[in-house]
Specification:
Length: 442
């Protein structure tokens, strides 16, 4: 076996089972003798000792039996590392997840692995992570069983999988839709983002940053729209970090990605929820809509939906229009106007609402739409290009006014000639923003 060949998953599983058996025996012994349980750190240290011993014994048996196992310390270390990763990490994926340079991992079957590194746009072919597609499926299934808050099945009956790995990376996988299983992993280091930093990066100018800060502080309901990889979540993080530390924040996501609880110095009172999938028979589970509904009974100062995906929009719009101000969310859309159309479509599909009712919900709930995209005029830099104020319904569609529009020079959003409606203007002024200057300070 050379370093480019994947380890046999069945062998790693066998050694993992043997180590777990030894750990269980030690736990039973300590219980019988009235000793305290091992701490997590001590259990991991004992596991390392057991793994080294059992891997060494396995290799020795193979050598004595004339097996095709080279006397190579690197194989010893690699096999031991794989067993440890299977028990306490992400299995064969852990090697790539430990590499801080790795941004994205795309797996098109066990032997076709592509890695994109930070600062690079062209992915690089990596060695196979599993000897067979079945082994690849088993590796991902093991993560699905233990990662995140809720176990998530990945089988032919439930062929789609979305989950958060222990390090915060976001895994998306599908089987049976193609000839081979497909897995994609996007790194998530839970980076913090603030409006002054977005100004420094060129995502927004200072005037727009001041407006956004005042909009959050004055508890406007804001929907951030954009295409895939446009920077919606980064912008959402910067808006969240305007929220005062004393406020109770509830976040709702399909798979946890925002990671507010990792930064308690910014938001000490945070509840994070993720959707719970039903089992293979369709039993149980908690939908996004149910989580949004439940959040309203948990005394929130703010409800943040990481990304609106469907039926939860109706509950969210109702909550916004009934006094739960200051909500923030993102939605996938190709233009700022398409954001409103997408929301209307989700609302209509969810509860078979009429055209007039869906648009009335939007008008009564959402204050501003902020649209962000990768700007081709600036080499793909993610920039906010437009901010719409939702101002009414004309009988055919939602009326909106572009209060910030893309300028003719570089496409960044700049203040337009449209006046902000009086009620919202007064709320913004109470938070320190006026079109004649800002006295709140970023």
């Amino acid at each position: 076996m050379n370093e480019q060949e994947p380890l046999e998953h069945r062998l790693v599983q066998q050694l993992q089972t043997a180590v777990a058996r030894e750990l269980n025996r030690e736990s039973q012994r300590r219980e019988a003798q009235g000793e305290s349980e091992l701490s997590r750190a001590d259990e991991q240290q004992l596991a390392i000792t057991l793994i080294d011993r059992l891997v060494g014994e396995y290799l020795q048996r193979e050598l004595q039996a004339g097996g095709d196992v080279p006397v190579d310390r690197r194989l010893d270390e690699r096999l031991a590392g794989a067993v440890y990763a299977a028990m306490f990490g992400a299995g064969e994926l852990q090697e790539l997840l430990d590499d801080e340079r790795v941004e994205n991992i795309d797996i098109n079957g066990c032997d076709e692995v592509w890695v994109t590194y930070a600062g690079e746009t062209v992915p690089v072919r990596h060695r196979p992570l599993a000897p067979t597609d079945d082994d690849l499926v088993a590796i991902v299934q093991a993560q699905a069983a233990h990662a995140g808050i809720n176990a998530r099945p990945w089988t032919p009956v439930t062929p789609q999988l979305d989950l958060r790995l222990a390090d915060g990376s976001r895994l998306s996988a599908i089987m049976t839709a193609g000839e081979r299983p497909s897995v994609s992993i996007r790194r998530n280091r839970y980076p913090q983002m603030f409006l002054p930093k977005l100004v420094e990066m060129g995502t927004v100018d200072e005037r727009l940053a001041q407006f956004l800060q005042a909009a959050v502080q004055s508890r406007m309901n804001i929907m951030v729209g954009g295409a895939t990889n446009a920077g919606k979540t980064t912008l959402l993080r910067s808006l969240i970090n305007v929220i005062e530390p004393h406020e109770r924040v509830i976040t709702i996501e399909k798979a946890l990605e925002l990671g507010l609880r990792r930064h308690p110095q910014l938001h000490p009172n945070v509840v994070e929820w993720e959707m719970v999938l039903p089992d293979a028979e369709g039993r149980g589970g908690v939908s996004m809509a149910q989580l949004v509904q439940r959040s309203l009974r948990q005394n929130p100062s703010r409800v943040i939906v990481g990304e609106v995906l469907g039926e939860e929009i109706v509950v969210m719009l109702n909550a916004m229009s009934q006094g739960n101000d200051g909500s923030l969310s993102t939605i996938h859309a190709r233009s700022s106007v398409a954001v409103l159309d997408r929301i209307a479509s989700y609302a209509a599909q969810a509860e078979n609402l009429s055209f007039e009712v869906t648009h009335s919900l939007i008008v009564g709930a959402i204050d501003f739409v902020v649209f962000i995209r990768q700007n081709p005029d600036l080499g793909g830099l993610r920039t906010v290009t437009e901010v719409l104020e939702v101002s009414g319904f004309d009988g055919e569609r939602v009326v909106s006014a572009p209060v910030f529009v893309a300028n003719d020079v570089d496409g960044r959003a700049t203040r337009s000639d449209f006046a902000i409606t009086d009620p919202r203007r007064k709320r913004l002024e109470s938070a320190g923003y006026t079109d004649h200057g800002f006295f709140g300070g970023l």
